[in-house]
Amino acid sequence: MSTRKATDQKDSRGKIVSYISALLVAAIFVFFITYFGIPSLLSVSYSEDSVASSTSQHIGSIKPLDTDAYNKKLLFLAHVATSSPWYYAFLAGTTTITMPGATTTTTVARKSWPVSTAPYPSDSRALLPFNRIVSYYGNFYSKYMGVLGQYPETEMLARLASTTAQWEAADPSTPVIPAIHYIAIVAQGSAGKDGKYRAVMPDDQIDHAIDLADKIHGIVFLDLQVGLSDVQTELPKFEKYLSMDNVEVGLDPEFAMQTSGVKPGRVIGTLDASDINWAINYVSDIVKKNNLPPKILMIHRFTMDMVTGYKQIKPTPQVQFIMDMDGWGEEARKINTYQLAVQGQPVQFTGFKLFYKNDLLPPSTGMMTPKEVLNLTPAPIYIQYQ
Prior knowledge:
Blueprint: H1 2-36, H2 39-42, H3 48-52, H4 67-77, H5 85-92, E1 96-97, E2 106-107, E3 132-138, H6 147-150, H7 153-170, E4 176-187, E5 198-200, H8 203-215, E6 219-224, H9 231-234, H10 239-242, E7 247-251, E8 271-272, H11 273-290, E9 295-301, E10 307-308, E11 319-325, H12 331-343, E12 349-354, H13 370-374, E13 382-385
Parallel strand pairs: 3-4, 3-13, 4-6, 6-7, 7-9, 8-10, 9-11, 11-12, 12-13
Antiparallel strand pairs: 1-2, 4-5
């Protein structure tokens, strides 16, 4: 019995050695095929879009911005005819132009929009103005703050898909990107432990917003209602999210109460250009640090006093700036607010908010349609639904 046991052990050891040897031979074979064999057998090719979406891509692979196409898209949004002297003057970067076929020069008055002092984005990954963003706004905890919390997830996403399709049909030349505009800091009527009258949403709620955006191949806006706190304190709390390439920022001056010292909901709050520029520069640093596509900073506005020093707002190549008309009511009232608080100001891009309920209150006879909004000058590039 002992002799048979020893023989069995010897055979077992032999089998193990043979198995290990076979594994080594196989590994060596795979190595040589991978590095020295036919590349097409093991290679995987990725689309240009897939490569562009990676935040770890090499800087050298990022295409530079086509500034001519960028400028022409701005003029398209401004409803400037291609035969207009201003069209040629703006593309040439001058106010004096000789029109095709003419022998004399023409001096053209500079228009307020496009804003000539706004910088070009840092590279071709910028979303604006080549895309229009259509967003649903709200908070998952509340049915009364917007559509995000009003409907079950499946129904809400179906409504957003239907809405984006309407905008694509209204302007087929501008692709539409859907967005989840989530209120990540909510102004409160109660002071809270630190007396700042605001509640910061937990990570799982923000993660849910990002998951929803991923499902629809869209982006996320994290909206901040800072209460008696300030932008400088609150925005850095979201740095890990801002380091993602599909997360943008919204700031709501209506609920920024530090200047007045009054709790939210009693008076309309305000943000100064210094607060907004701090946010722009903070986000710009994140973009540069992580080699991200240019980000977007969006500001709500429906009164002049909501944003003070607005002429001093300075976008950067890393952060594109939107001033969003945030007023509700009948069409004439909304258009007047847009012209006063957004259109007439030196803003890089404009936005327009539509309210499913408040825009229907008398004397309104109905919500504005995409075509009606697009007739505004400039045509808003960001659309928000509440």
